């Protein structure tokens, strides 16, 4: 948003311009030395000219600020593209953006300009997060991992440590169907580690795991009650709900909803998910999965 949209009226250019014009008009009138129609007319002309000049300056400053916002956005996009000329997708965006931007300015809708500038700030922030290798997405967005169809993912390893009822509710069922479709088409492999603490319902464990196996998921089980204290202490930092995926270009990335990492609270049915391509995050996640693979046991139904 532009600074002028929140500047008090007594500090705006038009106020001081009109005040100066009024002052000059009065001085011009008084300087005539006599009260005639001609002197009054000259004073009014001076005032109108000053007011017109002030209005032009105000409009220029507003348009200049708007162009600065637009140009700043385009400069950021060019830096991200890291090329002498913009790729076709950015060039197309530039054309559509300029027309829409100008239409909002031409309409002189102050609130629309404020909304536009706020959306621009959010967009720039998200692009910067993507460039930095870690981004938090709203789970409801169609480009969130769970809504993407997994068409660009060839391998997914995941840890489930929350309560098992998630997989029997709509969100869990939808996520499982998405994986099933990709597995059926032969373009995805999924390995899921279920961490059991010992207080789960045996019938629910059987239902959930049997369903996972039925759709083609390779299921591993970590039974915490069977681990020695030293093994549990070693694994504890890695016992979080997250996954590591490999996309079709061979790049690995970590996914954890609500930005969950060791030491943070996690809600598996939360409204956000975090994706990270950072080398450190991927390395830690892979260390965790290697350790889990070593400690995992085949599932054995509890009596």
Account of the protein in words:
The protein is an alpha/beta fold and 303 residues long. The protein folds into 2 domains: 3-132, no CATH class; 145-295, Endonuclease, Chain A, CATH 3.30.870. The chain has 8 helices and 7 strands; from the N terminus they run ααααββαβαβαβββα. The chain has helices at residues 13-31, 37-81, 88-107, 110-132, 170-184, 202-214, 229-235, 279-295, and strands spanning 134-138, 153-160, 189-196, 218-223, 243-247, 252-257, 272-276. A 7-stranded mixed β-sheet has the order 1-7-6-5-2-3-4, with helices on both faces. A hairpin with a 4-residue loop joins strand 5 (243-247) and strand 6. The termini are far apart. Residues 1-6, 80-84 and 259-267 have low confidence and may be disordered.
């Amino acid at each position: 948003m532009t600074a002028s949209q929140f500047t008090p009226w007594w500090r705006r250019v038009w106020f001081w311009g009109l005040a100066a014009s009024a002052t000059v008009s009065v001085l011009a009138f008084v300087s005539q030395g006599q009260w005639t129609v001609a002197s009054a007319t000259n004073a009014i002309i001076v005032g109108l000219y000053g007011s017109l000049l002030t209005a032009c300056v105000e409009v220029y400053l507003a348009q200049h600020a708007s162009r600065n916002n637009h140009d700043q956005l385009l400069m950021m996009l060019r830096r991200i593209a890291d090329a002498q000329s913009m790729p076709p997708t950015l060039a197309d965006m530039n054309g559509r953006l300029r027309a829409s931007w100008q239409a909002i300015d031409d309409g002189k809708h102050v609130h629309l300009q404020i909304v536009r500038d706020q959306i621009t700030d959010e967009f720039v922030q998200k692009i910067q997060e993507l460039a930095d290798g870690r981004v938090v997405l709203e789970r409801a967005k169609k480009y969130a991992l769970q809504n993407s169809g997994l068409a660009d993912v060839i391998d997914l390893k995941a840890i489930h440590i929350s309560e098992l009822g998630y997989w029997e509710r709509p969100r869990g069922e939808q996520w499982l169907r998405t994986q099933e479709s990709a597995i059926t088409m032969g373009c995805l492999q999924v390995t899921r580690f279920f961490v059991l603490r010992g207080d789960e319902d045996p019938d629910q464990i059987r239902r959930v795991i049997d369903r996972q196996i039925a759709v083609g998921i390779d299921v591993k089980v970590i039974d915490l009650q069977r681990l020695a204290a030293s093994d549990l202490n070693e694994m504890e930092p890695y016992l979080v709900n997250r996954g590591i995926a490999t996309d079709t270009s061979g790049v690995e990335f970590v996914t954890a909803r609500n930005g969950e990492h060791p030491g943070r609270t996690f809600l598996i049915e939360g409204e956000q998910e975090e994706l990270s391509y950072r080398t450190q995050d991927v390395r830690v996640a892979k260390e965790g999965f290697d350790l889990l693979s070593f400690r995992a046991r085949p599932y054995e139904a509890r009596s």
